[in-house]
């Protein structure tokens, strides 16, 4: 039998900080993108405290002594620091939270000094410059991985957590090896962080709703521009420009798909010219203050065939059936039952059809909890809760062999059920620039 380790007393979590401050009796807010003195919009300090408290609560329940994050979304959730999209795939920034201490942040060069000046919610001496090697660009023989691992081990000792497992989300293999060489027991911490992030506070929902309102406007512009002779890539350029003008802090991706490229879904855009009668669909993925959208709409250009209308109607029905049953307490397996089978859209397996008819959580990350599909939800069902925010998306190929309908709604799960916050009209197939 494994020896039971004595766990130091974790810092208590302030119950007030854990309150999500939901105001379900009022309309969901979508205010402007700046702060004002005459109405409450987003309380950022309350947001910081809530996210850190949620992490502390999840850590205390996890059996871990500390959490080490290289995932940019987890770093932001814990420390409320970010240095932009540039850092997303570098694995250069990291953050440590122990059960007995406050967040430690290692950042790229002068960003650490900047945080000491402008992030007073962090202790100045808890912000350090860091660099494990920039995904191998600096060779391992320089010793940066070992140096970082030793620094982390020293902090774990200092805060009484060196003998307990360390949670880790993502990292380069040499970082993992260096931690293990320090005698640290490393475990998967990503599940703990996803559990912490699954219930959005009032402030998080407000930010998500603002982000969605920007996409509402972009679709109005796309509908006006969607004409023969316009390239898929030009729609991407238009949408990207408008989003940044409205206040987006990151346009992560815009799918722009048309004509014969609609089925099967390629998940990228090209320089293809839009043609009369094309079906075209778009997915706009961007963030406002870090909070992301995933928001599909389908159009036809000038006119629509019966095959295109039928595919759209079927995709819409699948979506409406799923959304209608959403409520707190429902198991995700019950939602998955409402989604079409892979065979319904002519795919050979649920793996092959994954991502076409499913639901996924939205927040600082594009894919959070809940993630609901026929691939996973019958194996690992869990309960839906008020405060979850997620996208419901469907896809249906048309009988003409090339067209397809792709629709996605962003929903907030309230105590009464799902509230849609993606408001560009999509109940019926929109026809852009009708002939």
Entry keywords:
435 residues, Creatine Amidinohydrolase, Chain A, domain 1, Creatine Amidinohydrolase, 6-stranded mixed β-sheet, 5-stranded mixed β-sheet, 11 helices, globular
CATH architecture of the largest domain: Alpha-Beta Complex
Secondary-structure element sequence? HHEHEEHEHEHEHHHEEEEHHEEEEEE
Say how many strands there are.
16
- Please, how many helices? 11
Write up this protein.
32% of the residues lie in helices and 20% in strands. It is an alpha+beta fold and 435 residues long. Strand 8 (279-288) and strand 9 (291-292) form a beta hairpin. The model has no long low-confidence stretch (mean pLDDT 96). The termini are far apart. The strands form 3 sheets. The chain has a 6-stranded mixed sheet with strand order 4-3-2-1-5-6, with helices on both faces. Helix 2 crosses helix 7 (190-197), helix 5 crosses helix 6 (173-181) and helix 8 crosses helix 9 (232-246). The protein contains 11 helices and 16 strands. It folds into 2 domains: 15-197, 3-Layer(aba) Sandwich (Creatine Amidinohydrolase, Chain A, domain 1), CATH 3.40.350.10; 202-432, Alpha-Beta Complex (Creatine Amidinohydrolase). It has helices at residues 15-18, 44-62, 72-79, 110-118, 144-158, 173-181, 190-197, 202-225, 232-246, 306-325, 332-338, and strands at 66-69, 94-98, 104-107, 127-129, 166-168, 186-188, 250-258, 279-288, 291-292, 295-301, 358-361, 368-372, 389-397, 404-414, 417-420, 431-432.
């Amino acid at each position: 039998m494994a020896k039971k380790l004595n766990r130091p007393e974790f810092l208590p979590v302030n119950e007030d900080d854990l309150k999500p401050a939901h105001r379900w009796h009022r309309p969901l807010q979508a205010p402007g993108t700046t702060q004002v003195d005459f109405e409450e919009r987003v309380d950022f300090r309350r947001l910081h405290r809530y996210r850190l408290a949620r992490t502390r609560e999840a850590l205390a329940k996890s059996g871990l002594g500390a959490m080490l994050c290289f995932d940019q979304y987890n770093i932001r959730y814990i420390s409320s620091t970010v240095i932009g999209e540039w850092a997303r795939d570098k694995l250069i920034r990291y953050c440590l939270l122990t059960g007995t201490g406050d967040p430690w942040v290692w950042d790229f060069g002068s960003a650490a000094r900047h945080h000491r000046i402008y992030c007073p919610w962090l202790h100045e001496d808890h912000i350090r410059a860091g660099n494990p090697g920039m995904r191998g660009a600096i060779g391992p023989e320089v010793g940066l991985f070992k140096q970082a691992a030793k620094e982390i081990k020293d902090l774990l000792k200092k805060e009484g957590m060196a003998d307990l497992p360390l949670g880790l989300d993502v990292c380069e293999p040499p970082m993992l090896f260096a931690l293990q060489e320090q005698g640290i027991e490393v475990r998967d911490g990503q599940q703990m962080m996803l559990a912490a992030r699954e219930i959005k506070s009032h402030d998080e929902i407000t930010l998500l709703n603002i982000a969605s309102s920007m996409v509402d406007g972009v679709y109005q512009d796309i509908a006006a521009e969607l004409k023969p002779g316009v390239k898929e890539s030009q729609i991407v350029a238009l949408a990207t420009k408008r989003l940044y003008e409205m206040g987006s802090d990151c346009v992560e991706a815009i799918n722009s798909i048309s004509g014969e490229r609609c089925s099967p879904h390629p998940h990228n855009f090209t320089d293809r010219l839009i043609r009369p009668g094309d079906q075209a669909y778009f997915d706009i993925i961007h963030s406002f203050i870090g909070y992301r959208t995933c928001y599909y709409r389908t159009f036809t250009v000038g006119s629509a065939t019966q095959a295109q209308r039928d595919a759209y109607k079927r995709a819409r029905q699948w979506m409406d059936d799923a959304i209608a049953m959403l409520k707190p307490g429902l198991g995700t397996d019950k939602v998955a039952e409402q989604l079409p089978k892979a065979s319904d859209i002519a795919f050979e397996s649920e793996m092959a059809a994954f991502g076409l008819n499913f639901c996924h959580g939205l927040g600082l990350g594009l894919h959070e909890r809940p993630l609901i599909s026929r691939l996973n939800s019958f194996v690992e069902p869990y309960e839906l809760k008020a405060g979850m925010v997620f996208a419901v998306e469907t896809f249906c190929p048309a009988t003409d062999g090339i067209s397809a309908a792709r629709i996605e709604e962003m929903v907030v799960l309230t105590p009464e059920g799902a509230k849609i916050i993606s408001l560009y009209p999509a109940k019926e197939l929109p026809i852009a620039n009708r002939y």
